[in-house]
Design a protein that fits this description.
- The complex is a heterodimer of chains A (141) and B (267).
- Chain A is an all-alpha fold and 141 residues long.
- Chain A has one domain.
- Chain A is built from 6 helices and no strands.
- In chain A, helix 3 packs antiparallel against helix 4.
- Chain B is mostly helical and 267 residues long.
- In chain B, strands 1-2 form a two-stranded antiparallel sheet.
- Helices cover 69% and strands 1% of the residues of chain B.
- The chains are: A mainly alpha (141), B mainly alpha (267).
């Protein structure tokens, strides 16, 4: 019995190893977490190539219609983190939105009603479907 | 091993397990996640150790129900801790983990009650009393201190806004929760997506809201539902600067900010 319980414990602890490979390195930087995570999920830098992040950081005052300006000092630190941890340049260029990247549209080819679910609100709301999105886990598809 | 040494080791193990569980139980918040992880792993290790070591659970002088209370407490604490390890990687396990943790607290208390009955309380209570009383007092004090510290921080923020409000308007005579509520619910025309504070925070500020544009879940604003609200002056000011601009199309006065905080503190 003891051995059984212990074995069960070990099995559960080892579960994560079973998961697939839809993972992105989570954001470890406290400033990025705080500043980028106020209005939306803190998107992982690996989701866009460096050139896309550079362009976004250049025009934070018009951030998809909202003013998301930060002080020059904070902006530089955030820019450095995003570009240092950015994703590879994929064929398909440097999209302005994660949701316009080719790999994204390829994996999210859903009928319209899926996007209209009340909890979704917008395509960039990853955690609406991917519960582990904030931790960089997108295995649950 | 000498029985005396063994007893000492068992006690040491017991103290470590109780301590690890208590710390893990109290540090479930995001802010103390490192402590929570550490103490959780400690519980996993100690429970596993107990099942590995060849110690008899059922001694002749122990009633059956006491042995069961030990097994239940160990099993529940172990399940809570292991599910926590799982939830660290698979967030959907979080609800299960929280449920198990809550249950294991009650099972542990039942084990304490069983122990008190079995050992007739006397011997242990006599020895434990001074330590237990001091321990309970320290715990109570610590708990009330955290709540008091949050209240003090909020009062300080309100005091700052009150000073500014007086400078803005010499007739200022204190903040009002009613005015704060009116501000919260008032419909504006600047932002068609978010006409009022309530558009994102819902009509009931004790409930979680949702950002109308990004869909991000927003924790409750009401202090009763979320005691951490309005305790970080810099963050509070930052939010007022951004949200007043996007909802009202202008900056908020100090009176409005204080009214808003007063309304949320009353909810």
């Amino acid at each position: 019995m003891r051995t059984l319980i212990f074995a069960a414990g070990l099995t559960i602890a080892a579960l994560p190893a079973l998961a697939g490979d839809h993972r992105v390195a989570p954001v470890r930087d406290a400033l990025v977490q705080k500043e980028c995570g106020q209005c939306h999920m803190t998107f992982q830098p690996g989701l866009l190539p460096a050139a896309s992040w550079e362009r976004m950081m250049d025009k934070l005052a018009d951030h998809y219609g909202d003013n998301a300006a930060v002080s020059a000092e904070k902006g530089a630190a955030i820019r450095a983190y995003l570009t240092a941890n950015a994703g590879r340049d994929r064929r398909g260029g440097t999209p302005s939105r994660i949701t316009e990247a080719r790999w994204f549209t390829h994996e999210h080819d859903f009928p319209a009603p899926v996007w209209k679910r009340p909890e979704v609100v917008t395509k960039s709301n990853c955690p609406a479907c991917h519960q582990g999105a904030e931790q960089g886990l997108y295995d649950d598809d | 091993m000498q029985p005396k040494t063994q007893m000492r080791l068992v006690r040491l193990w017991h103290a470590a397990l109780v301590g690890g569980f208590a710390v893990a139980y109290l540090t479930g918040d995001e802010d103390t996640y490192a402590m929570h992880l550490f103490s959780g792993w400690l519980v996993v290790g100690l429970v596993a150790l107990r099942f590995i070591l060849p110690l008899k659970l059922n001694r002749p002088n122990r009633p059956r129900y006491f042995t069961w209370s030990i097994l239940a407490a160990l099993g529940m604490a172990g399940a809570a801790a292991v599910s926590g390890v799982g939830a660290d990687v698979l967030p959907w396990l979080e609800d299960l983990h929280e449920g198990l943790a809550e249950m294991s607290l009650w099972v542990a208390l039942a084990h304490v009650a069983a122990a008190l009955v079995v050992f007739k309380g006397r011997k242990w209570l006599a020895r434990l009393k001074p330590t237990a009383v001091v321990g309970a007092l320290v715990l109570l004090l610590a708990a009330s201190q955290t709540a008091l510290a949050a209240d003090a921080a909020r009062d300080a923020i309100l005091a700052t806004y009150a000073g500014q409000a007086k400078a803005e308007n010499p007739a200022f005579a204190g903040f009002s929760a009613q005015r704060g509520e009116a501000l919260y619910r008032a419909k504006n025309s600047v932002n068609p997506d978010a006409a009022s504070c309530a558009a994102c925070h819902t009509d009931d500020p004790t409930r979680a809201g949702r950002h109308v544009k990004t869909g991000r879940v927003i924790e409750p604003v009401a202090v009763s539902a979320n005691p951490k609200r309005f305790t970080d002056a810099e963050k509070v000011e930052e939010r007022f600067v951004r949200d007043c601009k996007s909802i009202l199309g202008r900056a908020c006065s100090a009176t409005e900010k204080g009214d808003y905080v007063t309304f949320m503190a009353s909810r």
